[in-house]
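User: Could you walk me through two proteins back to back? I'd like the raw sequence and the C-alpha cells for each, with a short line separating them so I can tell where one ends and the next begins.

Assistant: Of course. Protein one, sequence then structure:
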Amino acid sequence: MTNATLNEQLEAMRPALLRFALLQLRNPELAEDSVQDALLAVLEKPDQFAGSSTLRTYVIGILKFKIIDNLRVAGRTSQIETEPDQSENDVIDHLFTANGHTVDAPRAWGDPDAVLQQQDFFKVMEVCLEKLPAQNARVFMMREWLDLETDEICKELNLSSSNLWVILYRARLRLRECIDINWFADSKGKAL
C-alpha cells in the first residue's frame, strides 16, 4: 500500500474514529488528541500493519489503547460527572408484560459471524449507540469495546458495581431493541 493510499484511507475513517473517541472521552480536545495519536502511530510505522485484519480494525485497536490511556489520566486528575436518566424506566417498561416476560421474543439474528462482516451493520450499531443516553453508551463501550474490567470502570466513573450492572443491562436492552428494529426489522418495526 502506498503512502498516498494509506493517507486517503486514514482520512476517510477519521470522522468515525473521532465520534468513537468523543463518545468515550466526552472531551473534544482529548478525543482529537487520541485520534491524532492513533493515526500518527500508523503513519510512523506503516509496515507494522501486516494486513491480517482490515486497516480500520487495526487503527481502532490502536485508538482503543490511546483512549484507555486518556481515561486513566482523566480519572487521576478529575471526577467524571454522572447524569441520571429518569426516562430510562419508561423505555424498559414497554419491553415487558405485567408478569415479567418479554413482550416480543428476540428475532433470530442468523449467523452472527456473517452479520458482523457487513459494514452496514456497524453503521446501524453506531446509530443505535448514539441513541443511548451518554452515560449508558459510555459504560457499554468501556465494558464491551475497550474490555475494561468492572472495578476499573467503577473507579473511573465513580459508580457502584450494582449501578454499573444496571446501566449495562439497560444499554444492552435498548441496543437489542434498536438493532432488532433497524437491522432485523419487519413490517411492524418502528424507531425508538
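----
Protein two, same layout:
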Amino acid sequence: MGNRPALLVLDLINEIADPAGKYGAEGFAQQIADRKVLENAAKAVEGARTAGIPVIHVVVGFSPGHPEWPATSPVFAAAKADDRLVFGTWATQVHPALTPAVGEPVISKSRISPFYGTGLDVLLRTQGVDTLLVTGVSTDMVILATARDAHDRDYVVEVLEDATAADNQEIHQAALKVIARTATITTVERALSRHAQ
C-alpha cells in the first residue's frame, strides 16, 4: 500500500474560499487567506500534475431549488433559505487559483463526505489509487469525513495540513487531533517529496 497516490482538492470553491462567497464572508475566506491555503493547495496541484499524480476536485452543492437539501442538517441549514451552494453558478465553481486542468475530474456532492452518493471510490479504484493526499476546507467537516471514510475503504490517507483550514484556528487544530487517529498529518512539501518520484 502507499504506492499510487491521488490528490483530492475538496470544496475549495468560490462560495467558501472567496471573500464574496456567502461562507467566505463568514470567516472561511479569512482563515484560508491567513493560512495560505490556496497558495499551498496550488503548489500541491502543480506538483501532482508534474509528477503524474491524478488530481481530483470535489465540489459541494445542490441543484437549483435545492432538491437534495437535507432539511435536518445543521451544517447545511442556511443553504436553501439563503440560496447557497447552487450547482452551475459561480458559487460552486472551483476557485480560480485551482482551476481544473482539461481531463481532471470534478466530483459533485451534496453531503459532507466526498464518498457519499458519488462515484469517487470507483474513480479511484479504476486508476489503481491506494493513497489519498487530502487538501481543502473545512478541516472539521470534509477533511475529517474523508479521512474516516477513506480509512474504512482501506486507503492510506495523508492530510496536507498547510493546505487545509476551518472557519477558525481552534477548530482546525482540534480537528487535526481527531484526524491523526486515522490518517497521517503532513505538509504539501513533505508529501510531494515522498510521492513525486
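Helices lie at 14-17, 28-34, 37-51, 77-81, 120-126, 139-152, 169-179, 188-195.

Let me know if you want the two compared in more detail.
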